[in-house]
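Service request form, structural biology core

Requester: graduate student, group of Dr. S.
Request type: structure prediction, single chain
Budget code: on file
Notes: please return the result as structure tokens.

Sequence provided:
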Amino acid sequence: MENESKKLSRFQISPHRYTDTIAETKAEANIKKNVAFSVHILHLFTQLRRQGMSERILFALSTLVILFVTPPTVIRLIAQDWAVFTLDVFLIISAAFIFYNTLKGRYLSFLKLYMCCLVSIGASLTVVFGGIEQVYWIFPTVLTAYFLVKHQYAFLFVIAISAAIAPTIFNSADGMHTLTIYLALFGTATFVSVFSKEIMIENKSLNSLASIDPLTGVGNRRLFAEEASQSIAKEKLDRLVYSMIVIDIDDFKVINDTKGHQIGDLILKHLCSTVTKRLADSDSMYRLGGEEFAVIVAGDNASDGMDFAELIQFSLMKERVQELPIYTVSMGVAMLRRGETIDNWLHRADVAMYTAKRKGKNTIINDEDLPKGAKITDFERHRSSRATQRS
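Core staff response, request fulfilled:
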């Protein structure tokens, strides 16, 4: 009996040890949650860096409102100044709403108008209740409006602010002083309008240089990474089916070596022209490098990616150009899966494309038709490339 109890005791867990195990499990779970939260925040800030100047201004303004309005709100709560306290709470909640949705990249047009309304009303009320000495707050408000919204809307905000502060200005200043204030206000609005237009034109030009392939006019790899990330984010919201088509021109090195690089460049342009004129507004094409391209198709059905790849294949056969040699492409299609990364999505489409190469070129392979876990090793990729060069 004693021996049996000793044997059983070997399998009994000490209460202290059991408690320690639970504590360790909870600690690990908390660490995982903190890491996941940190990664999520880092991803949001990375997305913000990729957004435009007006989005960054929106983010900065909402942050400043939260930081500077919160301390006096606490003081007003203690002083039981309920009217101003309520207004401050409304401002903080509005700024937090703008802050969060700007990071998420949602409702941006509405958020810009909403922020302009907030700062315009705030600046106007400051002048009305604080007197003519507070008129200087109007000028940064004008600056904000012209950098956040379209210029015609910004001008309407300037008119509305001018009308709102008019009684205070006319009652507190003489004619010359009033004229000076309004000349300065509309002069600032005119200058900022011209200046912001020039900045936007320069930004658009720089963005084009940074994101467009100069030879073919389609997006480059940098733009592909950005817009593929957006497709992954949108897939959770708009419930569209996103498919990636990786396109590679068959025997392109042979064409370059025998016909010359000028003909090779014309083929690249012809391919991009053939594909892009058939893209819907929600679809995009990118040059990943050399003769390899990617197309992201947003559709309603899982078959839309294959359908578009077949349309490309048919169009290239139909629209021959006399000056160019006959060429074909191999394509791999992969539908975006829930929770998938860009690298994994691209890898699956790439695997399908290289499988099409090995199956005889001028072929389309759907990732769904491949064995689970199929992949292209570095050796197979190199062998496929060498085979293309020899043929």
